[in-house]
Design brief:
The complex is a heterodimer of chains A (256) and B (546). In chain A, 31% of the residues lie in helices and 13% in strands. Chain A has 256 residues and is α/β, with parallel strands linked by helices. Chain A is globular, with a radius of gyration of 20 Å. In chain B, a hairpin with a 4-residue loop joins strand 29 and strand 30. Chain B starts with a helix and ends with a helix. The chains are: A alpha/beta (256), B alpha/beta (546).
């Protein structure tokens, strides 16, 4: 009996260890103390097939907070881009570590979460280089709360990286609102804003950092992450497809 | 009285000797060679070299290029004594090639050719009125030669000069810059992708005016628009870039080819564009990945290469190119960039379909931007006028004969107007052109500019299309070493390696010669004259004579 109990205890311990290792949010901290510049990129595998690479929705995985709070957004946006446009899309999104040079292979990068955000030095350096080189970082405040931890810390981090005055309201006449579908009133409202959840405000503008007249960072606290985080099959139950603005963001990223 | 008479004779003799001594010393004087370190030393000793004392030889020890003033002094001094001069440590000569055609704001090439000691490394610099523009270090090959070119972008129309410096030699050249606006580029991309985004971005950041044509929607109303390259659209375009996988209909292909060959436009076909064959370019493309370091660039100087970073791009590499096509880059035995004239325009094919990786992955923003801008500049800069004027020496001294060469396209060679040359004083001369019997389509004229200043050249009844400047002799010792060698040779001396100069000249100097005593003999004789005169006066006073 004692032997059987010991075996059971050992099996339980092993299972717990395996679960802990497999848990996506539990990772050892990267061994990055201070970064002087963006990480160097190793040689990639040879591109396969002819023609331009299909659009890939890349989600940033960062060290702090919860990067995986909206796992259905990539599929939903890819579904809409394929549905409405002639742009070829990859069958699924990819996750890339923000501290990894892999981010430079994906000029559109989606970043969201609920929890307070703090970029480590390598993430900081990578993001600055990413935006300067022409990538578009799309940040969504999943907690849709101006007093929330994500909003306060994410805005502070973006200002720390790009300058105190770099993050500014995007005018509602911006070409982002006419790059594919027309949104004459600016960013579409979300059900979370209209239902009074979160901060109970309808945010008139999105925020952005511009580089050479083009958006390098798009920051939204309208919570499109919640709005688009449903299974694509359920889109048919909506009278108006609320992911259309996501198509505009992708088309803007690809054309500007 | 006898003593006084004897003293008078002595005084007169000394006086004659003092006056005759310099003449005697000039003819026979055993003086040492005059050593000259540099121009300042020459200035300091010019009085003794040019008048009075002629040394048996003049030795110039400096290995710096002689200035114009120094050459003048040496030429005068060497009429009285042979000149021995040290050769420069790296005897470099440099030739410069002006841009064949320069347009404001567009890339043009200033070529150079350096000669010197084989294996030497020489830094070549180019500057203009605004200061240093670029520099490059070249290693001279086994024959002692190296050549290259600088890519320049003249900002304004009109006369423009560049100064090329190599190993202390300075050569000046210039060109007439025609007015041209920012290139207008049509980018055809089919659906948008990262390459289309970053090509448009690079061109816009470089100042080009870009019109994009995306086929975005599936029957949806789209704001970005799309559409093919129609003749109307091409009429307001200088260069068209057709990116990989863009659907190009037969009518659009014909419109592009017609526009390029008849209107002087430039077409770039990227990736596996099936239309490449129609433009006389390579058509048998093979899809494969190309690594940045594997690309060997052999570009015309107006174009810019992508750096050899560890970047891997998809590509549609082509095989053998058709006659008349230049290969600007290869990788693994296949062609990566092909360039050719197309009627009055130009056409190119680029195999790389993901140049954006140089920008995003390698962080080469400036290089990616310059690659695309230079390529578009080249495409948009085909000479649209069937007549062009070239001047082999745009900057040369007044009084030197100038040749003016006119290249005429076959359809314009029959009626080439005369050349009108307007001088610096607004005096106008008309030059008749003579056909070169050996080269069809080439006509020549020549003139000798009398005054210094800018001369503009135009076909009768047309705007200025070339210019040259007549300078006042050798200003900046451009051919200083050649002139120094000529002066040394004509004086009976020669150029010598710096190490052997002193030994050779010491052998030439008479034995025991020195640079002269501190108290010259003429001064001693003058003192003796004074003493003798004083003694004669004293004797006469003591004897009561008047």
């Amino acid at each position: 009996m004692r032997t059987a109990a010991s075996v059971r205890r050992a099996a339980l311990a092993a299972a717990l260890v395996a679960l802990a290792l497999a848990a996506p949010g539990v990772r050892s901290a990267p061994s990055v103390a201070a970064a002087r510049g963006p990480a160097a990129l190793p040689a990639q595998a040879a591109p396969a097939g002819r023609g331009p690479e299909a659009f890939t929705f890349a989600t940033a995985r960062y060290e702090s907070g919860n990067w995986d709070s909206a796992p259905l957004v990539p599929t939903n946006i890819l579904h809409s881009v394929a549905q409405y446009t002639a742009i070829p899309v990859a069958s699924q999104g990819v996750l890339v570590d923000l501290s990894s040079p892999e981010i430079f292979r994906f000029p559109y990068l989606f970043l969201t979460g609920h929890l307070p955000l703090r970029f480590n030095p390598q993430e900081n350096a990578n993001l600055k280089a990413y935006v300067e080189r022409g990538g578009l970082l799309h940040v969504e405040d999943h907690s849709h709360d101006v007093d929330g931890g994500f909003h306060k810390t994410a805005v502070a981090e973006l200002r720390r990286i790009f300058g105190a005055n770099a993050l500014r309201p995007i005018p509602n006449t911006h070409e982002l609102y006419r790059s594919f579908f027309l949104f004459p009133d600016g960013p579409p409202t979300t059900s979370h804003e209209l239902n009074g959840w979160g901060d109970g405000l309808v945010h008139e503008n999105l925020l952005g950092v511009e580089v050479n007249g083009r958006l390098g960072v798009l920051y939204s606290n309208k919570d499109y992450a919640s709005e688009w985080n449903y299974h694509a099959r359920n889109k048919r139950f909506q009278s108006v497809d609320n992911t259309r603005f996501g198509v505009n963001i992708v088309v803007y990223a690809l054309t500007r | 009285m006898k003593a006084a008479a004897a003293l008078r004779v002595l005084v007169l003799s000394l006086l004659v000797a003092a006056l005759a001594l310099p003449v005697w010393r000039t003819r026979t004087g055993p003086l040492a060679p005059a050593w000259l370190g540099d121009a300042k030393a020459l200035e300091g000793r010019s009085d003794s070299l040019l008048v009075g004392r002629a040394p048996p030889a003049i030795a110039r020890a400096s290995t710096d290029a002689p200035t114009a003033r120094e050459l003048e002094l040496l030429a005068a001094a060497s009429r009285r004594a042979p000149l021995y001069a040290a050769l420069p440590r790296t005897p470099v000569s440099v030739g410069v090639q002006p841009p064949a055609r320069a347009l404001s704001g567009r890339a043009a090439a200033v070529g150079f050719r350096v000669r010197g000691a084989p294996g030497d490394s020489v830094r070549v610099r180019v500057a203009d009125e605004s200061g240093m523009l670029d520099s490059v270090s070249v290693r001279l090959d086994a024959s002692g030669g190296a050549s290259g070119a600088f890519r320049v972008r003249p900002p304004r129309a009109g006369w423009r000069e560049w100064i090329v410096d190599a190993g202390g030699r300075t050569v000046r050249t210039g060109a007439w810059v025609d007015s041209a606006g920012a290139p207008r580029v049509l980018v055809r991309a089919g659906f948008p992708h990262w390459e289309s985004k970053f090509v448009v971005r690079a061109l816009e950041e470089s100042g080009a005016i870009v019109e994009t044509g995306f086929d975005l929607g599936r029957g949806q109303s789209v704001a970005a628009g799309g559409g093919a390259a129609t003749p109307d659209r091409l009429a307001r375009t200088d260069a068209a870039v057709v990116l990989d996988a863009t659907p190009v209909a037969e009518a659009e292909r014909r419109a592009l080819a017609e526009w390029a060959s008849a209107r002087g436009g430039g077409v770039l076909l990227v990736g596996g564009q099936g239309a490449a064959g129609a433009f006389g370019l390579a058509a048998d493309a093979q899809s494969r990945a190309v690594d940045g370091p594997a690309v060997a660039w052999t570009l015309p100087p107006e174009l810019a290469a992508l750096p050899a970073d560890r970047v891997r791009s998809a590509a549609a590499v082509f095989g053998a190119v058709r006659p008349g096509t230049a290969v600007g880059a290869t990788a693994g035995g296949g062609g990566v960039l092909a360039l050719r004239p197309l009627g009055r325009g130009r056409a190119a094919a680029l195999a790389l379909t993901e140049t954006w990786r140089w920008r995003m992955e390698a962080g080469r923003l400036a290089e990616h931007r310059e690659f695309w801008r230079a390529l578009v500049d080249w495409l948009a800069s085909a000479p649209r006028d069937p007549l062009s004027i070239q001047l082999p020496e745009p900057v040369a001294p007044a009084g030197a004969r100038r040749e003016l060469i006119v290249y005429a396209a076959p359809d314009a060679a029959g009626a080439v107007p005369a050349l009108v040359v307007r001088g610096p004083d607004n005096h106008v001369d008309t030059l008749a052109l003579a056909a070169d019997p050996a080269r069809p389509g080439v006509l020549r004229a020549a003139m000798v500019p009398a005054d210094t200043g800018l001369y503009t050249v135009a076909f009768a009844g047309r705007a200025t299309s070339a210019a040259f400047r007549a300078t006042a002799g050798t200003g900046a010792a451009e051919d200083g070493w050649a002139r120094l060698a000529m002066i040394a040779g004509s004086s009976g001396g020669r150029m010598l390696p710096a190490d052997s100069l002193r030994g050779v000249v010491q052998r030439l100097a008479p034995a025991g010669a020195s640079e002269g005593s501190r108290l010259p003999l003429a001064a001693l004789l003058f003192g003796a004259v004074l003493l003798a005169a004083a003694a004669e006066w004293a004797i006469r006073r003591l004897r009561g004579a008047a």
